[in-house]
Amino acid sequence: KGSKGQDVHFWQEKMRFSQASQTLFSAAVRGDATLASQAIRGLGDPNCCSGQGYRPLQVAISCGNTELVDVLLKAGADINGHTRDTPPPLVLAAGNADDKDGRLFDALLGQGADLNVGEELTGETALTRA
């Protein structure tokens, strides 16, 4: 199905049964790029998601952590990945007040993020949020 409309339950189950994915998500919440790298080497899935549908990349963007964003993208995190209830990474970056110089936004665009991918519930895109 691509990024839009992916089965969130599939990714939640992957995290539930994978200690490495749980560690990876925890590293994203704490902003710890070193721990995230270790979890990825331990087969942590960069596309796992929390019970609320958030993925490590979305958390790293919300925290404004460009180093962690780079680690996750290099590990194969879906640059446009989101669920019905969560915003796409580029929309999060566009609305991140801590990203004053636009580094997160530019990094995502440079890696191929789609400006036209919007939130499923509101239709808001990175262009409308910026």
Concise summary:
With 130 residues, this protein is mainly alpha-helical. The chain is built from eight helices and no strands. It starts with 7 loop residues before the first helix and ends with a helix.
Give an overview in words.
The protein has 130 residues and is mostly helical. It has a single domain (8-129), classed as Alpha Horseshoe (Serine Threonine Protein Phosphatase 5, Tetratricopeptide repeat), CATH 1.25.40.20. Helix content is 49%, strand content 0%. It is built from eight helices and no strands. Helix 2 (19-30) runs parallel beside helix 4 (56-62). It starts with 7 loop residues before the first helix and ends with a helix. Mean pLDDT is 86; it is low at 1-5.
